[in-house]
Write a structure and sequence with these properties.
351 residues; alpha+beta; Aminopeptidase; two-stranded antiparallel sheet
């Protein structure tokens, strides 16, 4: 009798484990072969900004160092547009070795002793997943972002009360709010602001009719773009001579770049042409999650009730091999990304 009960119990356990294994299996990811990636339209220029999640990054020992800040700067010299595309760090991707992984650990996992090689694999992964031809990239860490922000005299950021409290919790004092509602942040405070995850920046309408806050990765991506836009605003009247000086500061505060001096000078010339241009922003994936795979731009892989309403956690987060991930509808997000990049943009003077 005991043996019979044991067999029944074992069978129940085995059967109950099957749906869990199947539920955690990600959907296939439709990557694009290198030879099939669309050419970059004439007039568009891509520059990838990569921030390593570390105050002192070391590409000779990249294992365990994650590329949490991934922002594509696209300049359209014909339409006179500057666009930022923010890739959230917990996107589920197909790594170059064919295995599933998170976008932020491609460099670390694929080339643990050669960060430069791993960075190229990261760029190749972004290109194959989003139909892009990114070639030029710049890599920084937290300390270097701090130095660059300080070099331009800080940035003015509209802070919410909870954001102000969060920054101050690290022992950093902040000046009083400016008359226009912004607060002037020095480099260290700006980095702390960019790293905030558990404070919402805005709310969005979910596909199921509910309203949710964009905490965690969506919020962090938004703040990264706010700081970059503030830097652009600060430099809207910069002279060519001052731009060259700033380029020297940037070159002295890089972990790595594959851009040559000529590439940098061309980028400076392009930036000067775009002075004062409003900075546009999109996040990949587009913030339209859904419990139903066909309804949204990203979704949970293994829905469980505790993942639906976790306080201060992004909606629709789950795990693959122990990692919190977002399964992306890549066809839909590619369509939305390219619609954004190629959309006409007209600046209207309201005065």
């Amino acid at each position: 009798m005991k043996r019979f009960i044991s067999l029944i119990l074992m069978a129940v356990l085995l059967l109950s484990a099957v749906p869990l294994a199947l539920a955690d299996e990600p959907d296939p990811i439709p990557v694009i072969a290198k030879e099939d990636i669309s050419p970059t339209p004439k007039g568009l220029h891509h520059y990838m900004l990569i921030c390593i999640d570390n105050w002192k990054a070391d590409l000779s020992k990249p294992e365990g160092q994650f590329t949490d800040g991934l922002i594509l700067v696209t300049v359209d010299e014909y339409a006179h547009r500057v666009m930022l595309t923010n890739f959230v760090r917990d996107m589920l991707i197909q790594r170059p070795d064919g295995k599933f992984g998170r976008i932020n650990n491609v460099m670390s996992m694929m080339s643990p002793t050669d960060g430069k090689q791993g960075l190229q694999m990261l760029i190749d992964t972004l290109n194959s997943h989003f139909d892009l031809q990114i070639e030029k990239f710049i890599v920084v860490d937290f300390k270097q972002v701090e130095n660059i922000v300080d070099a331009i005299g800080g940035v003015d950021i509209p802070l919410r009360s909870r954001e102000r409290t969060r920054i101050q919790s690290f022992g950093t004092s902040l000046p009083a709010e400016n008359p226009d509602g912004t607060t002037h942040l020095k480099g260290y405070a700006a980095v702390l602001y960019m790293r905030i995850r558990k404070v919402a920046t805005q709310e969005y309408l979910h596909a199921d009719g509910g309203v949710y806050a964009d905490t965690q990765e969506m919020a962090r991506s938004y703040r990264d773009s706010v700081v970059l836009a503030a830097i652009a605003e600060k430099l809207k009247d910069i002279t060519y001579q001052d731009a060259l000086k700033l380029m020297d500061v940037i070159l002295n505060n890089l972990v790595y770049t594959n851009m040559t001096t000529d590439d940098m000078l061309n980028a400076v010339d392009l930036a000067l042409q775009m002075r004062g241009t409003p900075v546009e922003h999109i996040t990949m994936p587009v913030n339209n999650p859904s419990r139903q795979k066909a309804d949204g731009t990203w979704y949970e892989i293994s829905p469980t009730p505790e993942n639906y309403r976790k306080e201060n956690l992004s909606y629709c987060e789950s795990s693959v091999n122990g990692m919190a991930v977002k399964q992306i509808n890549y066809e839909l997000n590619r369509e939305k990304l390219w619609s954004f990049l190629l959309d006409s943009f007209v600046v209207v003077d309201e005065e």
